[in-house]
């Protein structure tokens, strides 16, 4: 929707009419054709690039959200350096798995939704509220999901009320579940969860939590061809983000490179990764 101001110098009435604090509701009222869920569905199954594995883990001071960099289309590697983890706002982030194009569009709309609410209400949504808004957006994509164009994100953030990091996972219908400790989604999630299940502890430091998620992504790439491991030759490393009471922070290229290289170097000695104690 465009604001045409050449004739009068004024914004259209849609921008001046009081309404909901939801940007999605605003679009539904004035330009419903712009919402992803209102588009005409394609016929048959559509081949499109898919993002794969996203992982998250909490630690006493916050939460870590990370993703590999590979996108696949069938048995082909569609992109080696796709970005799958984005800030939702200052204190939360979302990692995308599923149809890459739709997922990135959904993230941008989600960012606008949170920003619009804050501008209209003069306050931010609670972390629970943000998770619920994302659930509604996923549910609106159900028709596309039934055509093979699913979007299944992982949402994480710092809960200012409870003063801790929290993780929320979703299914294609918009069903929301809070995960405790760690979580994973995407094609390599079963291997990543298995890795974190044996290595996770409640008392991890931030450094240990970031190492944990990179170890999990490495294990996922080891067994799932759709998940990309650290690419030392091309200098492509996982995206790792940390959210604490100080806000969202993405590890720099140098930090993620050092972390991925240290994990890779240790794998030369232990190809299957660190071992958990039997008892």
TrEMBL record:
Pathway(s) per entry: Protein degradation; proteasomal Pup-dependent pathway
Task of the protein: Component of the proteasome core, a large protease complex with broad specificity involved in protein degradation.
Transmembrane feature ranges: none
Family named by the database record: Belongs to the peptidase T1B family.
InterPro entries: Ntn_hydrolases_N, Pept_T1A_subB, Proteasome_sua/b, Proteasome_suB-type, PSB_actinobac
PROSITE patterns named among the record's database cross-references: PROTEASOME_BETA_2 (PS51476)
Propeptide part(s) removed at maturation, as residue ranges: 1-51
Classification lineage: Bacteria, Bacillati, Actinomycetota, Actinomycetes, Kitasatosporales
Protein's recorded name: Proteasome subunit beta
Domain of life according to the entry: Bacteria
SUPFAM superfamilies on file: N-terminal nucleophile aminohydrolases (Ntn hydrolases) (SSF56235)
Key words of the record: Autocatalytic cleavage, Cytoplasm, Hydrolase, Protease, Proteasome, Threonine protease, Zymogen
Catalytic activity: Cleavage of peptide bonds with very broad specificity
Gene3D superfamilies assigned: Glutamine Phosphoribosylpyrophosphate, subunit 1, domain 1 (3.60.20.10)
């Amino acid at each position: 929707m465009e604001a045409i101001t050449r004739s009068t110098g004024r914004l259209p009435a849609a921008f001046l009419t009081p309404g909901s604090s939801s940007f999605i509701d605003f679009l539904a009222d004035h330009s419903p054709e712009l919402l992803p869920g209102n588009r005409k569905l394609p016929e048959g199954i559509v081949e499109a690039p898919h993002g794969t594995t996203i992982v998250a883990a909490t630690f006493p001071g916050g939460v870590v959200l990370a993703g590999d960099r590979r996108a696949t289309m069938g048995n082909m590697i569609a992109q080696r350096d796709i970005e799958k983890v984005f800030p939702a706002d200052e204190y939360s982030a979302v990692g995308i798995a599923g149809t890459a194009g739709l997922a990135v569009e959904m993230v941008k709309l989600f960012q606008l939704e949170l920003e619009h609410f804050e501008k209209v209400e003069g306050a931010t949504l609670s972390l629970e509220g943000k998770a619920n808004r994302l659930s509604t957006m996923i549910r609106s994509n159900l028709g596309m999901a039934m055509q093979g164009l699913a979007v299944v994100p992982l949402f994480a953030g710092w809960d200012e009320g409870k003063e801790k990091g929290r993780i929320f996972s979703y299914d294609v219908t918009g069903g929301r579940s809070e995960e405790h400790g760690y979580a994973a989604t995407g094609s390599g999630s079963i291997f990543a969860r298995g890795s974190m299940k044996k290595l996770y502890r409640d008392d991890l430091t931030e450094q240990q939590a970031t190492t944990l998620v990179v170890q999990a992504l490495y294990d996922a790439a080891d067994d799932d061809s759709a998940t990309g491991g650290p690419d030392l030759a091309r200098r492509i490393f996982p995206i790792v983000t940390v959210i604490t009471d100080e806000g969202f922070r993405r590890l720099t290229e140098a930090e993620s490179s050092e972390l991925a290289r240290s994990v890779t170097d240790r794998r030369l000695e232990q190809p299957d990764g660190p071992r958990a104690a039997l008892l």
